[in-house]
Structure formats: C-alpha cells, structure tokens
Amino acid sequence: MSDVPDPSKRFSTDNSSISVDKKRRKIDQDNSLNESDCSSEKAAYSQCNYEDQSDTRAGVAGNSSRPLPPCSGDNHDVVAQNVDEQALQQEATATWASTGSMKDLGFNKTQELLIPAPSDPLESFLLFLNDDILDLIVCETNLNAEKILQQPGITDKSRITNWKELTQPSDEDRLAKIRPIVDHFNKIMTNIYSPGKQLSLDESLVLWHGRLLFRQYIKNKRHKNGVKLYVLAEPEGIVLNFQIYSDAGEETSTVEHTQKIVLKLLEEKLDSGHSVYMDNYYNSYELAVKLLDRQTYCTGTLAKIKKGNPVDLDTVTLKKGENKSVFLNNVHIGKWRDKQYVLYISTEHDNEMLEVTNKRGQVLLKPSALVHYNNFMSGVDLQDQMLSYYPCERKTMRWYKKLFIHMLQMSLANAFYLYNKFSGKRIINLYDFRLAILEKLLSKKPVQLKVLKVEHKLTKIEKVKLREKKEGNRTRTVKEIMRKECKGCKEKKKRIATSYECKGCAGSPVAPVSVRMPTPTRLRDLIRQIRAARTAAEERSVVNKECAYIRSTFREEDSVWRCRNIAKLLYIHMLGYPAHFGQLECLKLIASPRFTDKRVGYLGAMLLLDERQDVHLLITNCLKNDLNSNTQFVVGLALCTLGAIASPEMARDLASEVERLIKSPNAYIKKKAALCAFRIIRRVPDLMEMFLPATRSLLTEKNHGVLITGVTLITEMCENSPDTLNHFKKIVPNLVRILKNLILAGYSPEHDVSGVSDPFLQVKILRLLRILGKNDAESSEAMNDILAQVATNTETSKNVGNTILYETVLSIMDIKSESSLRVLAVNILGRFLLNNDKNIRYVALNTLLRTVHVDNSAVQRHRTTILECLKDPDVSIRRRAMELSFALINGQNIRAMVRELLTFLERSDAEFKAQCSSALVLAAERYAPSPRWHMDTLFKVFLKAGNYLRDDTVSSTIQIVSSSVAERQGYAAMRLWTSLERSAISGDSSDKQPLVQIAAWTIGEYGDLLVSEASNSISMADDDGVDDFTRPSEEYVIDIYQKLLWSTQLSITTKEYLLLSLAKLSTRFISQPSQEKIRVIIDTFGSHIHIELQQRGVELSQLFRSYAQLRPALLERMPPMEAPGGGTPRVDTEEDQDQENTPYTSPEHRRTDQDALLDLIIGSDPIPNGDVEHIPVTSAPAPATTTTNQDILDLLSGLDMNQSTLPTSAVTPTLPPAAPAGLLLDGLFDSQQPPIGPPAVPTALPLATVVALDRGGVRVTLGAERTPDPATVQLTMQASNHTTSQLTEFLFQAAVPKTFRLDMMSPSGTTLPPNGEITQLLKITNPSRTPLRLRIRVSYNAAGAPVLEQAEVGGFPADLFH
C-alpha cells in the first residue's frame, strides 16, 4: 500500500463509515427506548487495556448515547458548531496524507497554588471543608426541618422529629441532593490550584449495589457497580474537576455526549496549551479538531468505528512492531501493532518511534504518542488506588451520602497531594497525614480522674443459696453461689455478675467491690501466638496455657465470653489437642436464644460430640426445639448438626420432624432437610419408608439446590433397597426431562460453570440414571437418547465437561445400552487418553480397564493410544496402561502386544518389572501362537526382567522345556547359551540370576545337543532373520561355567544350579580333557565355605571316584516333567515344528485334574467349553482317607454312600472331542493318543428320559441309553431355554457316588439363545450295578447376573445297568 491514500477515498464519504454510523444510530435509537435499563451501559462504559485491547471499548462506545436536544446557551457548543462547519468545508477538499506537521501551541500557564501554602495537614484539608460547605449543610438542614415541622399534627414527641432529610428531591435534577457539593468542590479546585500541562480524563465509580436508575457497570474498575463519575485529574492523582453521570436527564447525554463531557470538564482549562490524555471512549477526529482550535492538545487511543477515521488504516496489514501514520489538519492518527492492532490519535506528537523497556527487560520501539499516553493517563486510577486504602463507606448508606463521603475522601487526597507539593516541609505518607488531621480535630485532652490506690484482697463469695431444679417428673435441690454486681463494670454502665468480692470494702456505703475475670484473648490473637511458636514445645505451652484459662472460665460460668472461648477451643481441637471438656459448654451455647451463640455451639457439637458419647443425647431436645424455629437459619443449623452426629436413637426420635421439613415451602429448609434425611437413611436404613412419599416431590422443584439434594437422597435409597429401586424406576422420564432441560437451557449466571449449566446436578442425575437402568432393559431404552445427546453435545475444553462425559460413559457401560452407544462411550474415553491433563488420562485408563471385558472390540480400536501411555512420565498412568494392555491381549494381537510390552519391561522402573514379567509369562502361556514363539518370549522375559521374576517362573519354564520335542530342547539350549555367554562376558549375570538358573539347567540336560553337529540343523534365526549363533566347544562351555562359579555376586541357589549342571555335562561331553576339567572344578567346592555347596561338591566328587560306574545313570537326562496341576507329562511331537500359525496352549495352561468332583465342590475355575483331560484309570486303589476326599463327600451328602468302595477313581478321564481338520491341535494331549479322529463310541440303545431341572425358564433333561457294556450307560443332557433373553457362560456339572465312574464329553456350546438347546454326553460306569443317583449343578449368566442352580436327580429305571 502506498503512503499517500487514494484521493477518491475521502473519509467524509466512505461507505464503511456510513454503514457503521447507521448501525450506531440504530443502536442509539434502540437504547433510548429503555432509559431504566442499566445493562446497556455496562458494555458501553467498560474499561480496557490502554494498548493491547484498545478497540474493545471503542467497539461499543456509541451504544449508550441517547438523543437529546443540545443546549444552545453554552459557549463551547457555539465553538463546537463553528469547528463542525470548518471540518465540513475541509472534508470536501482535504485528504489524509502520510506526512504532516504538528501545531506548536505553547503552554501559557504555570503549575502553582493560587493561595498561600498550607502550614499543616489540617489547614490543607480545611481548604476544601471550609465554612461555605458547612454553612450549606446547616442551611439545607434548617430549611428542611422548618418545612416538615410546620406540617399539621407534628408534636414534640413525633417520630419525625428524630430523623430528617437534609435536602428535598427535585423533579428537574436527579442530583439535586448532591449537586451543591459537586459544584463546591469544582469551584474550590479552580480557585486554589492551577494545574500543569498534562491532564488525564477518565471514569471512576462510587460503589453502589442498590437500586438506582443511573447505576453503571465497568468491569475493570475497583468497584464494578456504582455511580459513575467523569473525572479530570493530573497524572499525579489530583482531581481537578468531576461530573456525575445521571443518565438521560443531564445535558451531556446527547448523541455526541462524549464531546460535551470533555468540553464541560475542560471548560476552565481551554486556550492554555494543556495536553489532555483520554482513551478511545472519548477520542475522535472531530473532538481533536475542536480542542486544537481551542489551543488544547489531545492524545490517546482511538476507536476504529469513530466517525472521521481514515479508511486506509482499516485495511492496512502490519507486522509486529510496525507503525502506519496519516495526517490531516494537524491531527495525527496512527495504527501500531503489538500483540494486536492499536489505533491512536494525537494533535501533539508525530509518528516518531521511541525506545522503551518492558517489564521483562526487552527493548521495544513504540510510537511517541502511546509512550506519553501510558505515562500520563493513570491519574484517575491513581486517585482510586489512594482512596481504596482507607475506605469509609458503609453498606446501609444512601447513594447521595456515599457520594458526599466520596467527595470528602477526594478532598482529603487532594489536600494530601497539595500539602506535600507546596508546603515545603518533609513529605509524609497518607496515613500520617490523616493521623495529623485527626490529632488536630481531637486535640482536647481527656480529663484525668484521681483514683485512690487501694489494694483489694479478692476472695470467693461463700454465701450460697438453694434452688429447686426440675428434672423430668422429679425435683431436686441444688446449691448455687451467690453472685454480686461488679462495681467496676457498673461504672462503665455494664451489668456483670461476679463470684468474687473484697471483704475489706464490704462495709462501705457502695455496693460490694468485686472484679470480673480479665477479657479473654481473641481467636485471631491466639492463632498468631500459635503460629509464632518456633518449636513444638513452645506451641504446647501456648495451648496448655489457653486451655487452662478456658477451663477456669467454664468453672466460673462466664457466659459473656463463652462463645469466644468455644471458638478458640475448636481451633485447638483442630490442631489435635484434647478439647473434650468443652462439650457441655457447647450445649449451653445451643440453648442460647442468640443466633451467633447457636452457630458456634452447633459447630462445636459437630466437632466434639459423636454417638459414642452419652453427652450427645442431651442435645436431642434442643434440636427438636430449633427444628420448629421460625428462623430458617436456625432450622438449617439444627438439620446440619442432626445429620452429622445423629445416633440411631436420635434419628428415630427426630425423623418425623425431618420428614415434615422436607415438605416445607422454603427451598433453603427443604434442601437442608433432604440432606439430613440422606444421612439418617445411611445411618438407619429402616427409616427409609418414612421419607418415600415426600422424596418424589423433590424432583418437581425448580430450585437446583433442592433438585441436587433430592437426587442424592433417591440415589442413597436405591442403593440400599431393591424394592425402593423398583419403586423409583417410574421417575426415569422425569430425570430425563430435567437433564434435557439442563442441556438445552441457555446461559444462566446463577448455575453456569465454565459454559456448562449446573454440572453438579447433571452428574448427580447421570449417576442415578446409571443405578436405575442397571439390568433393566425398559429403563435403559428410555435413557439411551438423552445419554447420546449428553455425550455428543457436552464441551470437552474444560474439566467441567469432561466430568459430565465421564459420568455419561459410566452410565452407558452399566446399563443395557445399545452397542453403538457403547462404542461412543469408548471413543470418548479414547479422546480422554489424548488429553493433556494427567488426571483425565488416568481416569480414562481406569474406566477402560473396567470396560474392556464388556466391549473388547471397541477398546481394541484405541490400542495404539493405550500403548503410547506406557511412555507417560507419570507412574500411575503407566501402571494403569500396563494393566489395560495385558487385558487387551488376545490370540490375534499377541505378537504385537508382547513386543511392545517387552520394550516397556526393559525400560520400566523396578516397581513394574515383577508385575509386568509375571503377566507376560501368563499371557504367553495362554495365547502363544506356537511352541517356539512361546519359548522365545519366555527367554526374552528372563533376559529383560532380571532378578524381578517370580520364583515359580523358573520351575514352570523348566517344565515347558523338558516336555518339548528334542529339536526344540536343543533350540532352547542354544538360545539360552547365547544369553548366558553374553551375561558372563559383560559381567551382569548377577542382575539376571533367574536366566542363569534356567540356562544352567537346560544346558546341563541338553548340552550334548549344544556342542554336537546336530545343532547345525536347528535354525536360530530371530525375528529379523539374523542367525548369529556360533557352536561352542566343550572347553569354552566349561570356561564360562568356571567364570560364573567363581563369581562372588551370584547367589548360592544359582551356584547350586551351575554346579549340578556342570556335573551333568560330564556325561554329555565325550572328550576326556573336558571331563577331567569338570572334575577339578567340582573338587574345589569340597572345601567351600558354604555348607550346602560344600556338601554338593563332596557328593558329586564321589561320582568321579568311588561311584564312577553309577554316574551316567544318576546324571542321565530327566524325563518330561509333570505340569503343576498334575496329569501326564506332555511331550511335543515333530508336527509342532510347523504350527507357527496355529493357536497353541502351553502345558502349564492346560489343567489335567484327576478328580472333576473336586472342581465342582471347591468352586475352581470352570474349564473352557467343559473339556476335561484325565489320566487313564488304573487298577491301583485310590486312598479315600484324605481331607480332600472327605470334602468331596459333602457334595454327595444325601446320596447312598454305604456301598462298598471299589478300587476305582470317582471320576474317570474322557477323551477330547474330534478336532476339525483346520485346527491342528496335535500335541495338546497325550502323545500316545491319535492326533486326529474321534474316539469310537459304542452303539447306544435308548431307554428313558428324566427331567433333572426346570427352574427360571431353563429345563434340563437326561436321556438314558444302554451301551453294549451292561455296566456302562450313556446319558444325553439336553438344556433348553424357554425365556426371552440369551443365557451366556452356560456350564453343566455332575457328581456321582464314589462307586461310579463318570466321563463327561464337551458340550455343544456355552451360549443358550431363546428357544435354543445345548447337548452334552455323559458316560457312567457302575460295576456294582446299584441304582443311579446324580447331583447336578447348572450355572449361567442371565441379563448380566450370575445364576446357580443345583438339584439331585433320581427316578432312573431300576434295571438301568442290567
């Protein structure tokens, strides 16, 4: 853009200016229709930052103007009219230029005091509070009194004679009461003081919150609401002139009211060369021209919508620090960019840029106009700051009285400034200045009374009186010490009774001389003393001293200071010191009729009393009386105390009163009563029925406080009683309606929190909906839509919205919501994971951990984000992310998840390694895609977890290796040898001792495969296809062992593994030098300092000498080990080598229970799909005297157990069902069983059908069929679902007496749909041919709730086994 604007763009005809002016006039017309509305003035006169937010105020500067015919009698209006005519002539010919000159006016006045300088502060103050204003006050008062007293019916005793108005209101002037005071102040300042060149003009507010037609709101003033003053001041804070804004009734309230305000305030200061600094509320091109014509400069910010602004500056784009200036008629308007654009105007300063240093020490270039504006604009704000130090206004004053006092305060501040500037004496601060004035005004010395010094000996009054005291239905006599009036207090016109007297003064004509206890320390002073204590002993000394004093006042029955003493005692109790001796005093305060005493008394009761102390029963009657009080705050105190300390007995006595108050029309009492009922129900659930009728009506209230307490009360009832839960399910539509109104409601300042309407009530309602909708399809359907609406419409930029979304997610996951709604809830939690707030991320992980079992697929979508949380610096987030990651592992993502978790395990802190490694081992056992991957994962865990592995992990890994095929055993030996070699060379074997132990065992067992040429055929390629294995020699292996055995950092257990492994290698290695070297190493341990290693060394040495012939047999390879759960060892077949993509179950994960009845009785984990793997039945008799077998008999109680026990197991094993051809499950069972093909099932002959169970819509029948073997019967279990809901996790279990043998095949499924069936075959062998009796157990999940049914089955044909 060129510096010189286009000549065609004259600012007088700019379209944008015309459109803005039209909008402004329309706003002015709209505002003029409602003169009593104060809100239009709030935005109009709101302040803003002088630079960074310069156009905030300017944007609405014209909104508050109201059209009024101008006054033609003022001189400045004539001048303004002449200037307007000149401006209109110039607009036709002149344009804004990029260069120009400023007019040099020259200041022709001197800053001076026009009267002799004051000699003291009082004389300076009396310059303002002189006789004229006092005469004015007296005159107005007398005139008003005469007018009122002349009215008929006024007597000397009339009330009107005690209260009079000073002035009479005027229908023409709203400020008639205060107008003379304002004119007096302005006149005084004009007559006594001539200001300097720089002046500032701004607004000020006098605090007023009451009803007033011209009350204003300015957001960045000290008092935001009040009466607005237009103030002209010097930069030092001296007020020169001020005017009160009184709305449309004043002459300055026309369209161009800001110009008239400025000209009126500067009426006495024009034509002198003053520089006036104003903000964008006043400044305009037209005003600048008028002031310049009157020999007055103006400088300040400029609103961009003011008429006459150059159009080019609106469209110019600047970088930070750049400035653009235009000139016309000696007026300079510039646009400068700092954090945002600043538009300014000046008739004194040109476009010169000055260097300034900001508060951060940075040097910046700013226009000289803005630099001077910042330096000289703060005069009014400085005056407000000085007045704020010693405020004297009171809340109950009339507005005109507050204005009068504010004028006195301004006069005092002006006197302070003038005294320091012109007195020539030492400068004093404002406090000393005010104090000097007070000392002068109150200089009369008080009269000193001569007091005879008499030493009084005080003794306790011995005289007592008897008084009858009623206690219930009986009366007893009590003794009370006589009290006498205190003489000292009587002289002070106080009536205080005391129990002390001076006997020497008793004969005098006056009343007996007595004294009262000294005034106790105030609470604030006690707090200061305790905080000033430097040591705990000093603090205890202060507390003990104060407690002793409080005890003495309690003994003296000092009722005057009882409230203060209890307050101090409560503070001492909060510090942890004993305060039980104040309990009875709290009861006395509660019985007091004063509210202040009751408040402290009830607070003390809540802190010092509880239901374990008998004293709290004495408060019941006081509570009952206060619950019937006419004062709502007293009732509220009683309800709060009852809810806090109510015992079951007290709750039963006062529950009826609380129930009555719930129905109160007063919202405050109703809210307190509902909260008290909530605490009573929590303490005594039996009283719930009493509050049911009144509770439901709470939801019809419009008061949000009552709604919150009502929802809280209903939530507590529903959580405690299923019947109440069913009763309140009818209110779901009401809750949905309330929640919908909250969401759709507009802005309400009373309930709005960060843009959300009453989030506290929303959270309470969502929690109640969650409880009502759980396991209820109908209620859940009613709230699905509103939950979706809350989840999609709630703002997430603030924590308030996140809280509501969190409760919404919990509600969605707990009720029977739609699947799409659950996905939406999980997605919300996924967004929480991306939040910067750690607390929100932690809450999201916690909730996902609870949700992953409900909707695993939806959570899986956020797996990447969850894994990223493993790198979070917060330890709590990492822990929850780790737990959630393990919950997400399944057969499809096992490889990727384990890879990430292994990386986390390697980098994690020590506190995570144990848990993470154990979970990795379990996940690998459950979801391993192949045996080799399973083994590799275990070895990686050993390598990265180090010594943090559980002890049983070593033994379980040994069992897995021993039960593998020969080739995989060789692979394990080679892989572990590589890790062992690296650890021995790097010297970190002490940090990986579990790895050393498993490596030592494996190499000891399969060392021959490690060093033989057979190892060349085994692939050692890792995930990246790299094979870096080098076959070691026998001597190198022994050297590594020797290095490890000589290490002083390995534990004794690890060395035991190594020593035994080295002995086994003597039978695996064939060369004689190797065996001899092994013998030498073992011999050295025969003298080891540790007894265990010494014993092993001696014993193993004998195998090389006396018992050499037994060494090969004793140290031969161990057979496959049995899994921890029992059963035959599993030996992998060669076909396992090709099953890399086939689901694999490790031997440890499969359970081979010998007795299925044991699972049925002790409640062990159900076996997936009902599959059970058993060992073959042997003819060896099973012992029946163990505790386990006795426990088994408990389930079979009632069955005929008197039969002779045959040498056979109570439950026999069953063969697995036929595996599909696509699922290569070879090797999962005993190697002697055929890998493929179903077992031969003998032909069965149908016989009879028995109904075993028919409950809850589930029917189970057992169809008996004979087989060719007369001692064996086949039962077909058929389970049918006659309900409308789907049953999941269906499990059928059966038990028979010990004389029978039971084989159970796999069921056809575990999910039972409506009208569906599940079948399962049972084979029962009965060698004794006794009648068949069964005990069955059926478990399933119906509508999310577990169901367990058990029954005894009989009625089979007697000839079933014949």
Automatic annotation (TrEMBL):
UniProt entry tagged with the keyword Transport: yes
Localization in the cell: Cytoplasmic vesicle membrane; Endomembrane system; Golgi apparatus
Residue spans of biased composition, Basic and acidic residues class: 1-12
Region (Disordered) location: 1-77, 1117-1151
Membrane topology: Peripheral membrane protein
Alphabetized UniProt keyword annotations: Cytoplasmic vesicle, Golgi apparatus, Membrane, Protein transport, Transport
GO biological process, one term: intracellular protein transport
Similarity-based family: Belongs to the adaptor complexes large subunit family.
InterPro entries found in the cross-reference section: Adaptor_Complx_Large_Subunit, ARM-like, ARM-type_fold, Clathrin/coatomer_adapt-like_N, Clathrin_a/b/g-adaptin_app_Ig, Clathrin_app_Ig-like_sf, GAE_dom, PGBD
Primary location group: membrane
UniProt lineage: Eukaryota, Metazoa, Ecdysozoa, Arthropoda, Hexapoda
Gene3D superfamilies, sorted: 2.60.40.1230, Leucine-rich Repeat Variant
Domain GAE: 1245-1357
Cellular component annotations (GO), alphabetically ordered: cytoplasmic vesicle membrane; Golgi apparatus; membrane coat
Protein name in the entry: GAE domain-containing protein
